[in-house]
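User: Okay, second chain of the day. Same drill as before: sequence in, structure tokens out.
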Amino acid sequence: MERSIIRQVPFGIYAHIVRSNLLILDFLFNVHKCYYLFVSINLLTYYTYIVECSDGSYYTGKTSNITRRMKQHNGLLAGGAKYTKLKRPVKLVHVENYTTNKFSCNREAEIKKLSHEEKRKLCLTKS
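Assistant: Same drill. Structure tokens below.
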């Protein structure tokens, strides 16, 4: 389930809400002669990423915090994948962001099925 929070905001900042790409759940209603919008604010962005290891191989993963995950893969923080532990340093070569964990997981599975050459082409074309 996607984590989100409902906020009540004054109508005057409608333009700001649209520019921030927030999902508007309900339109205007009148409460004590003041207009409000209900807005769903997604608290997390999910990332599917590809890192290139020092031996030229690729590792595909997903995370909600790409900066922390890169530090883990490079041994600066505890954690990280067993695969990348012996192939450091790794560098981030491709990132895709998603609004839900489900989409991120599905994309990770798709990328993991690709051959090394297909992953290389993906990194060159979309990065």
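Residues 1-38 have pLDDT under 50 and may be disordered.

User: Thanks, on to the next one.
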